[in-house]
Amino acid sequence: MFQFLPYVFKTLWRHRLRTALTMSGAAVAMFIYCFIGSVQQGLDSLAQQREAKRSLIVFQANKFCPATSNLPEDYDQVIQKLGGVNHVVPIKVFTNNCRASLDVIVFYGVPPNLLREVRDFELISGSWGNFDKDQGAAVVGQAVARRRGIEAGDKFSIGEYSVNVAGIFSSNNEAEENYIYTHLEYLQRRQRQGTDGTVTQFEVLLSDGVDADSKASQIDDALRSGSVETDTRQKGIFQAKSLGDLTQLIGLSHYLGLSCVGLLLVLLATTTLMSVQDRVREHAVLKTLGFTNRQVFLLVLVETTLVGSVGGGLGVLLSLGTLSLSHLAIAAEAVTIAFTPSFSLLLSGVVMTVVGSVMAGLVPAMAAARSEIVPALRES
User: Which of 9, 29, 281, 365 counts the highest number of beta carbons within 10 A?
Assistant: First the structure.
């Protein structure tokens, strides 16, 4: 069948405008498919991180946005005394927007001596020394740094907050690269209403073998006599609750991605069928020259598969390339989902493109193969 590829290429070139438009439609469909898929990949990655199940978040009960949660900082001493606890990290959180947004700025105020113990960060520029010695310093995730054009040594300001960028970090958890970490005391002093001595939440890192749900209940019971009631959950469950309806919308978007594959199939099938109807006499001549029905079927099928695969493949590569360069993320209530391009998403996009293109070519190919020679030659 490869000996007929030159004929297929000549046919596509002869109708190059139609070919280009069809490829463009396939590229758009698969671009959207991969774009949507990257959000789902980011959500899955957030839930599958080890710390999502081995860490607990202690938050003020019946509160939703970080700005409304204020816990006494000395709660950490009570929690640390409980068995099975490795670290208790007091965290002050500031976000410029609690609602869902594609460009939320999230500050995490953490004691500097604990930051490197509880986070697996690697500085790609700057130094930890500058961060440790300057209470107004911050280390910035590379995703938010690239979106905002931030470099080590810069001063970054948003609203009443202004920090000296001591370094840019990368992390195995892409969601973390959308956060800015600064000193706990800096955020406590800068926030209004006298928040010295209070934190937004505690992150509790558990020892191996400790039952997370039982420990969460134990922490809430131990703090029940305190001035503020707490609600403790596994980190993954806490993040899912914070994201709320956004999680369900992302789940539903999966069907939108599949509908893009359906759009690819319908577009290719319709365009190829119209092409076959325009070339009825051409296919009749081929049969007269000795082409079998099977060979005509394969010619049309290869043509459709080639157009769809090239167009869709370009859409897949363009989508993943755009996502890799843009470092997009969506956040709600200071929890971030990174748009995550991955090899599995690339493979899924390629498979969907090829399978959809082959399926789209079946009906037009059968129509071309079944056409009769004499009636076809009589077509005007």
Answer: 29
Q: Report yes or no on 132 lying in a domain.
A: yes
Same domain for 122 and 212?
A: yes
Domain range holding 6? 2-46+252-377
pLDDT tens readout for residues 313-360: 999 999 999 998 888 888 777 788 888 888 999 999 999 999 999 999
Is the distance from CB of 203 to CB of 235 less than 8 angstroms? yes
- 238 belongs to a structural domain: no
Strand pairing of 55-60 and 201-206? antiparallel
Count of other CB atoms within 10 angstroms of residue 205: 17
**What is the SS3 assignment for 300?**
helix
**Same domain, yes or no: 37 and 101:** no
Is 233 part of any domain? no
Amino acid at 167: G
For residue 123, the model assigns a pLDDT of 93
**Element of type H or E holding 85:** strand 85-95
pLDDT digits (tens, 9 = 90+) for 47-86: 666 566 688 999 999 887 887 889 999 999 999 999 889 9
State the pTM of this model. Answer: 0.81
> Amino acid letter at 15?
H
Per DSSP, the residues of 322-352 read HHHHH--EEEETTEEEE----HHHHHHHHHH
- Which of the listed residues 228, 243, 261 is the one where a domain comes to its end? 228
